[in-house]
Amino acid sequence: MAKQPMLKFVTVERSMPEKRSATERNQDFHEIYAEYAAEKAKEQSGRCSQCGVPYCQSHCPLHNNIPDWLRLTAEGRVKEAYELSQLTNTFPEICGRICPQDRLCEGNCVIEQSGHGTVTIGQVEKYLTDTAWEEGWVEPITASEERPESVGIIGAGPGGLAAADMLRRAGVQVTIYDRYDRSGGLMIYGIPGFKLEKDVVMRRNEQLEKGGVEFVMNCDVGKDISFEEIREKHDAVLIATGVYKSRDLQGPGSGAGGIVRAIDYLTASNRKSFGDDVPEFESGELNAEGKRVVVIGGGDTAMDCVRTAVRQGATSVKCLYRRDRQNMPGSQREVDNAEEEGVVFEWLSAPKAFVGDPVTAVKVQQMRLGAPDATGRQTPEEIEGADYDEPADLVIKALGFEPEELPTLWGVEELAVTRWGTIKAEFTTGRTAMDGVYAVGDIVRGASLVVWAIRDGRDAAEAILEDLDGGRQAIAAE
Length: 478
Known about the structure:
Elements lengths: L21 H24 L9 H4 L7 H9 L3 H8 L6 H7 L11 H4 L7 H15 L14 E5 L3 H12 L3 E5 L8 H4 L8 H13 L3 E3 L10 H7 L2 E4 L5 E2 L12 E3 H12 L5 H4 L9 E5 L3 H13 L3 E5 L11 H9 L3 E3 L2 E7 L5 E12 L5 E14 L2 E4 L3 E2 L3 H5 L26 E3 L2 H4 L4 H28 L1
Parallel strand pairs: 1-2, 1-4, 2-3, 4-15, 6-13, 7-8, 7-13, 8-9
Antiparallel strand pairs: 5-14, 10-11, 11-12
Helix pairs in contact: 1-3, 1-7, 3-4, 4-7, 5-7, 8-18, 12-14, 14-15
């Protein structure tokens, strides 16, 4: 056998002290990461083909001018690229982090379609705005002149905040009412911090507050203040509540302990990250540590739950979805990320019943895809005799959200809703049949994306300004 070479250990003299503070280490990491991010942004932007038909732009709900700010980034004109990117997007650093780009801009990139891998548009967008904040390029919210009109916004989620930003820049007085203690909606309590750092959202909240937006938090409309009181206080009202009513499970044992709603589970995790006292987390009720976790659902919320459970130290994490991978509503990129982290997906599987109280197992019914329904989507069908018990200590229901019954909760029966409970409003303006009342985001569309809420908020702000200006002109003409 050949003699193995002897390993030699060489002592390297350090040019820096052995012991360094956490702040210094973080600063070093930040500088190295910033340099890496700049290089990657330039590299990826340079891959844009500047095609004649920018499908990336047309498939962006905000119609961001993606090719042009990619070109500017590739040329090293980062400030100009940022300024262009924020013209059409109130919160580009948030969209860069949480938009399902694989279903929107990146999924429709010509380079991606040709099989060469997409330009990472979302990462470039994130880099541009993070750099802008770092360099002080983000302009504070200021109005060229103050206007006497005021707008009350119900809901501090992305739609309401986007509208508030535009209205304040136009000089309108804005008050936001929200039932929670922090502004941001699902961006704060519904989306995990590993996808959207909370300081990123809080920074925008602070910008709005410094810009003159008044926040009335812990205010539950219909209880703490009536809808009519808000209407009386303001010249216009924008409803941007989102949808928070969780779809529920039926079946034997569905009321057992250990079966929880996704929104409760994610809210507890996010509150804990803020340092809040969360008794349900401490007791283990909403904590996955050391547990066999089963998440039911196939959307982005389900992906947030499984990945949160992994980080909390679950012994196993499985996701049940009644259709196959190709038919799931969530982002395929999120599924890939979850699988890399150890999550097991049980496709064509649905809960049939629950064993034990507290729960010890989910009785899983295996499915197959049958004939298409009215939408063209194949309908899941049970395979007779094909079921089994999946051990579980914590079951998380991530079946989606529905609107609350706002006309009843607020005592406003004239607020028209659809048969699904969403508010009837014009998609392009947010105008409802009630004079001076507008609605945007999920409460109009049903559960949707943050980027669509931002688009709706911006569109509604333009419509409100147009109507307020029309009222001014009418008064002047009298």
